[in-house]
């Protein structure tokens, strides 16, 4: 079985190439082809001998991340892509243009087992976790498709990144390493629904990434209604882990909060958010929930969402109300993948 060459860190690739009897500088050339020039085939590596290219092709592979579908919003230029992996699994990624640069949101798993009550990603459960190269491949393919450089990467698509912890770490080191795209760690965000032990592990890595916590409820009871993970890790334990992360890294936490009409946008919810977040150096990102047909949840109108934000700001909470992007192209996490998978199931039943 061939080895996944894009999953090697720079140091690991050096060891591999030297074990082949090649000089160390060849590893630097190959790594540059893979992670800077974004080569998709060994034949592109024209500064290597034909013999070496043939030996690489015999022992290694560059796993394909193949574009199946591309949707571009006419509202804001957001581009959503559906990719097929080597085994037929599909994942989705999003390209977003901001004034500060281009941001991509990638998936860390095919499917998800967290089962959050408002998210399309978990419908159908988890197929498998992605390798580091498959996470990188989404970034690289989007950059090639759009013809522009990526400046920010968000691991907030389908899947729970901390449920794929080892591969996530390798991905982060390759993405931000000086020999690859060398994206600043401060320009990378990793989102988690709150796997407490892994938050402590990530704190110990002393990375400078932003950690985003999917909060969505200001009390343990409300979180349990919306997020099954809360049955394993209580809110107070989660907040303690966030405090430890801030203490270890100096990086403030971002809390993500999907606003759901009549569920978590009440006066009591605002009061509880002020209580738990007021003493903390953090940022709160309010996200009007995206409609998913399998769930009967609705977002508050813009005026009520703004009023909720104003209440929090009045008590010193650092808060933003996210601008909805890609609304006309199934912009919410998991929607495009879910639509594709459901269509394949229906076709198979005919």
Automatic annotation (TrEMBL):
Cofactor note: Binds 1 [4Fe-4S] cluster. The cluster is coordinated with 3 cysteines and an exchangeable S-adenosyl-L-methionine.
Radical SAM core domain ranges (all copies): 98-328
One Gene Ontology term from the biological process aspect of the record: tRNA methylation
Recorded GO CC terms: cytoplasm
Gene3D superfamilies hit by this protein: 1.10.150.530, Aldolase class I (3.20.20.70)
InterPro entries with a match to the protein in the record: Aldolase_TIM (IPR013785), Methyltransferase_A (IPR040072), RlmN_N (IPR048641), RNA_MTrfase_RlmN (IPR027492), rRNA_lsu_MTrfase_RlmN/Cfr (IPR004383), rSAM (IPR007197), rSAM_sf (IPR058240)
Keywords: 4Fe-4S, Cytoplasm, Disulfide bond, Iron, Iron-sulfur, Metal-binding, Methyltransferase, rRNA processing, S-adenosyl-L-methionine, Transferase, tRNA processing
UniProt GO molecular function: 4 iron, 4 sulfur cluster binding; metal ion binding; rRNA (adenine(2503)-C2-)-methyltransferase activity; rRNA binding; tRNA (adenine(37)-C2)-methyltransferase activity; tRNA binding
Pfam family, one: Radical_SAM
Compartment(s) of residence: Cytoplasm
Residues annotated as the enzyme's active site: 92, 333
Cofactor: [4Fe-4S] cluster
Residue numbers binding S-adenosyl-L-methionine: 159-160, 191, 214-216, 290
Annotated residues for binding of [4Fe-4S] cluster: 112, 116, 119
Enzyme Commission code: 2.1.1.192
Substrates-to-products reaction catalysed: adenosine(37) in tRNA + 2 reduced [2Fe-2S]-[ferredoxin] + 2 S-adenosyl-L-methionine = 2-methyladenosine(37) in tRNA + 5'-deoxyadenosine + L-methionine + 2 oxidized [2Fe-2S]-[ferredoxin] + S-adenosyl-L-homocysteine; adenosine(2503) in 23S rRNA + 2 reduced [2Fe-2S]-[ferredoxin] + 2 S-adenosyl-L-methionine = 2-methyladenosine(2503) in 23S rRNA + 5'-deoxyadenosine + L-methionine + 2 oxidized [2Fe-2S]-[ferredoxin] + S-adenosyl-L-homocysteine
Family: Belongs to the radical SAM superfamily. RlmN family.
Additional notes on this entry: Reaction proceeds by a ping-pong mechanism involving intermediate methylation of a conserved cysteine residue.
HAMAP family per the UniProt record, alphabetical: RNA_methyltr_RlmN (MF_01849)
Role of this protein: Specifically methylates position 2 of adenine 2503 in 23S rRNA and position 2 of adenine 37 in tRNAs.
Protein name stated in the entry: Probable dual-specificity RNA methyltransferase RlmN
Originating species: Schaedlerella arabinosiphila
Gene that this polypeptide is encoded by: rlmN
């Amino acid at each position: 079985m061939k080895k996944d060459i894009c999953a090697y860190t720079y140091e690991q690739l050096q060891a591999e190439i030297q074990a082949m009897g090649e000089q160390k500088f060849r590893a630097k050339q190959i790594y540059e082809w893979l992670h800077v020039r974004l080569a998709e085939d060994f034949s592109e590596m024209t500064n290597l001998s034909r013999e070496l290219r043939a030996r690489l092709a015999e022992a290694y592979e560059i796993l394909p991340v193949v574009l199946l579908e591309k949707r571009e919003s006419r509202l804001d230029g957001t581009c959503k892509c559906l990719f097929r992996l080597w085994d037929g699994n599909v994942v989705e990624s999003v390209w977003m243009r901001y004034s500060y640069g281009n941001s991509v949101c990638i998936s860390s798993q095919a499917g998800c087992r967290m089962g959050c009550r408002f998210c399309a990603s978990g419908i159908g459960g988890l197929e498998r976790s992605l390798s580091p190269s498959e996470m990188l491949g989404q970034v690289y393919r989007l950059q090639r498709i759009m013809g522009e450089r990526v400046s920010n990467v968000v691991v907030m698509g389908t899947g729970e990144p901390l449920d794929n912890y080892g591969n996530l770490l390798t991905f982060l080191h390759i993405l931000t390493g000086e020999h690859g795209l060398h994206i600043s760690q401060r320009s990378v965000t990793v989102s988690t629904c709150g796997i407490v032990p892994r938050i402590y592990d990530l704190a110990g890595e002393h990375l400078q990434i932003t950690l985003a916590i999917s909060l969505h409820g200001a009390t343990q009871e409300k979180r349990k209604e919306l997020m099954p993970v809360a049955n394993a890790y209580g809110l107070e334990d989660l907040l303690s882990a966030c405090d430890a992360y801030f203490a270890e890294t100096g990086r403030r936490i971002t809390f993500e909060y999907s606003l759901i009409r009549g569920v978590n946008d009440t006066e009591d919810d605002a009061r509880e958010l002020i209580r738990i977040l007021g003493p903390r150096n953090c940022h709160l990102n309010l996200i009007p929930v995206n409609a998913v047909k399998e769930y009967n949840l609705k977002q508050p109108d813009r005026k009520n969402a703004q009023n909720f934000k104003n209440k929090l700001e009045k008590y010193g909470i650092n808060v933003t109300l996210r601008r909805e992007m890609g609304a006309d192209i199934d912009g919410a996490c998991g929607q495009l993948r879910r639509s594709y998978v459901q269509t394949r199931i229906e076709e198979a039943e005919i």
